[in-house]
Please model this.
Amino acid sequence: MFENLTERLDKAFHILKGRHKITEINIAETLKEIRRALLEADVNYKIAKDFTNKVKEKAVGRDVLTSVKPGQLLVKIVHDELAELMGGQAAGINLSGKPSIILISGLQGSGKTTFTAKLANWLKNKKGRKPLLVAGDVYRPAAIEQLKILGEQIGAEVYTEEENRNPVEIARNAIEYAKKNGFDTVIIDTAGRLAVDEEMMREIENIKNAVQPHETLFVVDAMTGQDAVNTAKVFNERLDFDGVVMTKLDGDARGGAALSVKAVVNKPIKFIGTGEKIQDLDVFHPDRMADRILGMGDIVSFVEKAQEQYDAKEAAKLRKKIAKDQFGFDDFLKQIQQIKKMGNLKELMSMIPGMGKMIKDVDIDDDAFKSIEAIIYSMTPEERRQPKIINSSRKKRIARGSGTSIQEVNQLLKQFEQMRKMMKMMQKGGGKNLMRMFGGKGFPGMPGMN
Model:
């Protein structure tokens, strides 16, 4: 996401390279490039112009500290203004009420039904809630079935009324059902249309008036750019929703909708869809997104995702195995499974500072571990426990069984042995032993790593 914008902004900041102070003259060309970058990202012209005016106001005449270059200062100002443009701080979801009622609205094809399930999954796992999903889309033939399948996947009940074609009555009945059966959250999926029309708006208004939701969310496809923002404006005028959900943001290299929507409707983006899997849903943090747009990564989100998969007992067992030099391929498989649970691999790598540019043109498939897993599963239990016993005849058998080449098997064994040594050295002597491996110099850009 935001790849094009990141690249263009980077070029804009390079214009100030070698300058000692930000002036009206030398900043003019940089601001022009920033404005162009925003317009190419499908940001409304007025918003782009206001943005660069604010940046200029804060930058011109600012004293630059000896240790800070003008380009670095401008990056900081642009970062803060980008975060502010997108809402400043992460906005929470209102879970008051017994039960909490959440109404989902949006156009057909925006991903409402999938988001309904993703939100239920997020509430279950992150907030310890017991959600009831309500199939309120009585027009799209596959909508009810789709919600049932998704509900089954996440272990959440779906309320349906096959014969009833009145969405208002279905929503009311679902809330009564939730109260009687101990559900603390009701998420109502509603019908969408291919375009905004009066009938659709009246229906969603009627549902809202009938159930008085604690939270009304507008779901929009980020890839539709300014159309998404314009649709949000129309919906907000009628519904006065509480927040926006951007789906398919992972597939949007421009990002104009995410940058513009807060300024246009004055409602925060609350959630973003970052992939097709049920767990690919994140709370929207404007400051972290500004980091990523400027190529700084998003290490906080990366650590949070890692912590979600962290198991203290398993980690303790792993440390003991490493200490006894018993770390094998079964343990390695467990590590792979944990990484896969964290989400889209390319998305994860882009969160690490400095990695965004390096992997920009690299195609990292979600099945990147497939051949590694195939090789490991082709090993016998003894081979997985003691990789050192794998000789040439065993390698041939493993390659045949996994549908890979002997070279690939050799490469995995070599990388695995290097990783084992590194893990043992880190556990024994921390940074000192690890630095010894790199000729006493440590990692580039990480002096004095202890």
Observations:
- The chain has three domains: 3-85, 100-296, 313-437.
- Residues 345 and 367 are 9 Å apart (CA to CA).
